[in-house]
Amino acid sequence: MATIYEVSKLAGVSLATVSRVINKNPRVSDKTRQKVLDAMAELGYRPNSIAQSLASNISNSVGILVSELHGPFFGQMMAGIESELRAAGKHVIITTGHSEEDKEKDGIEFLISRNCDAIILHVEAVSDAYLIDLCKGKMPVYFMSRLVEGLNDHCISLDNELGGYLATQSVIAQGHSTIAYIAGPQFKADAKDRLAGHKRALAESNIPFSDTLYFEGDFKETGGSDGLNHFLESKQEFSALICANDEMASGAITYARERGFSLPKDLSIIGFDNIIFARHTYPKLTTIDNPVNLMGTMAAKLVLKNIYKQKNMSITHSFEPTLITRDSLICKS
Amino acid sequence: MATIYEVSKLAGVSLATVSRVINKNPRVSDKTRQKVLDAMAELGYRPNSIAQSLASNISNSVGILVSELHGPFFGQMMAGIESELRAAGKHVIITTGHSEEDKEKDGIEFLISRNCDAIILHVEAVSDAYLIDLCKGKMPVYFMSRLVEGLNDHCISLDNELGGYLATQSVIAQGHSTIAYIAGPQFKADAKDRLAGHKRALAESNIPFSDTLYFEGDFKETGGSDGLNHFLESKQEFSALICANDEMASGAITYARERGFSLPKDLSIIGFDNIIFARHTYPKLTTIDNPVNLMGTMAAKLVLKNIYKQKNMSITHSFEPTLITRDSLICKS
DNA sequence: TTGTAGGCGTTATCAA
DNA sequence: TTGATAACGCCTACAA
Fold first, then answer.
1. Which domains does chain B have, with CATH numbers?
2. Which intervals hold domain HTH lacI-type (chains A, B) (predicted)?
3. Which residue among A49, A70, A276 sits closest to B79, beta carbon to beta carbon?
C-alpha cells in the first residue's frame, strides 16, 4: 500500500503538502492540489486511518454498547446510530453487555481501550453512580434510553413513565377496571418507569394496584407466557393485560390462544415499543410507540455536534411515546 | 493516560521489556515481569491499541458488512459473529450495504480503509466477478450466506436449494398440488436457489410450475401481502402458499386474514429462515430453519483460524436447512 | 503557499 | 534475559 511519502515523491511536493490535501486544508494552491490528487490516484493511495489516529489522536470511531445485537429494539437503535455516523465518515464499533453488570463494565472497558472518540451506551445493569463516575473520565460518554441524574446533556431518553401512563390510561378508557400487568425486570430503569406510569394512571382512576395482578417478566416472549400463566393459575379475574414491552405481549398472545382464549374478545392486550412485528401478531397489537430509531440518530447527532464539532445539529434530548391503536385492545364487553 | 515509557521508568526497565510483558513474551524473568506488572497497575496503564496497530500492522478488528442492522435475520448473524470474536479479544466494525450495489461497494471500501485484519461480508447486490476480484487484493475476505464460485474456502453458506426443495416437498406431502410461490428478489443468490429447489420438488412430483402462481417479492412483509393480493386478484386456485422467507410469510398471514381467510384451513402457508418471531404468528409458522446464528459463529471461527492463527478451530463451510413443523401447514382438506 | 522536523505509543531487530 | 534504536504512516507547529 502506497504511503504519503510515495505520493509526495511522485507529485514532487513535501509530505506536509500531501497531508494538507488529504485533510482538505485550503492553504494549498489549486495547481499543487491537482498534482497531489493525480499522484494519489495513480498510486491508488488510501490514507492509513490508524496512522492518522495515532498522530491526530482522533480515531473517527465511536463505540456502541447495546444489550443484544439481535432483537427488534436494538436493531432499530443501531440502524439509527450507524446510518447517521456513517454518513459523516465515522465508524461504529459495536459490542454487547447482555444486561449484566459485569459484562456491561467489561464492554465499556473494551470500548475505551479501543480509543473511540466517544461511546454511546445502552446499559441497564450498571448503577447510576458508576455512570456518573465514568463520565468524570477522559472518554466522552452518552446514554441511550436512559436518563442519568445530573447528566441530562449526555442522555437521549424516552419518557417511559408517560408511556406507561398512556398505556394504562388507554386501557381504562376502554372500560377495563380489572387490569393485569406484566412488568419488565425492575432493575432496568425503563421497566421501573413504565410501571410507575401504570400506577399513576390507576390511581388517577381510583383503581387500586393489586399485587396479585402484577408479575415481573423478563422483557422476552417467555415473560409474557409465564406472566399470563401465573395470573391464570391464581384464578384472578381480569379483562385486560398490559405488557411492558411488545415481546412479552407477543408471548402472552400466543399463550392466551393456547389456553383457549379468543382474542381480543376474551382479553384485551396492549404492548410497548411498537416493534416492527407488532403489526403481525393476531390480533394486531395495540401498543405504545417508542421512537428508538430516531433516538439513535439523535444520539449520533449529539456525538457529531459535541465531539466532531459539526454545526447545525439541533438536539432533542427527550422523546415522548405515543399510542398506536390497532386491534388487540377493545372495549370491555 | 500513562504510556509504556512511564511504565518502563517506574519499573526501572527498558521499553522493550515492558513491551514483552504486554505481549506475554516468555523471555522475561519472573522477577522483572512482576516489577513491570506492578508499575502498570500503579499507573493504571492501558496499552494504546492504535499505536499497537500501527507498529504491528494488526488492528485486531474485523469488519462486518450486513444488508441491514435491524431485522431478525441479521441480528442473529451479527450476534453469532460478535460473541465469538469478542471472546477472542477482537472487535467488530459493522456497516451496512442495504442490498444495493453502490452501497455495498462503498461499505467494503470503508472497511478496507479502516485497516481491518479481515472482513466478513453479507453482500447481495454485488457480482461474483467483483468478489473474485476483491479476493485477489490484500485484505482477507470471507462471505456469509453466499457461495462464490471457486472461493469455497472463503464461504459459510446454507444449502438454499435444499431448503427450497424441503419446503415444497413438505407442502406436497400434505396433499397440496396447487401451490403458489412468493420468491425473494431474484438478484439475490439465496432467493434464486430457494426457487430452484422449489422447482425441483415440483418436477419430482410431476407438478408443473406455473407462472401465474409465481410472484417475486421483496423479502419484506409487504412482499407477502402484495404477492398474496396478486394471486387473489388473478382468481387462481391454490391451497398452499410458499414464501421464500418468514417476513413475507408474516405479511401474507396478516393479509390473508384481512381478506377473510381462516388459517390454516383455507390456506396453508410455509416460510423460510425460522426467525424468532415465527413462533408468534397465528397460526404458528411452519418454516425451514436457517441456522444463521451458528453460521455467524462459524464465520468468526474461520477468521480466528486463518487470520489470527488460533488452533483447534474446526470449520464447517456448508450448512443444511431443516424443516420446522408448526401449525401453518396442514393436510389439504 | 510550501517545506522541515519532531512526535504520537508501540513493536521489532539487533546487540549486548 | 535485557536494552538501544529504528521503523510504523501520518499530523502539525514552526520556518521559510
1. 4-47 (1.10.260.40), 59-158+292-320 (3.40.50.2300), 160-290 (3.40.50.2300)
2. 2-56
3. A70
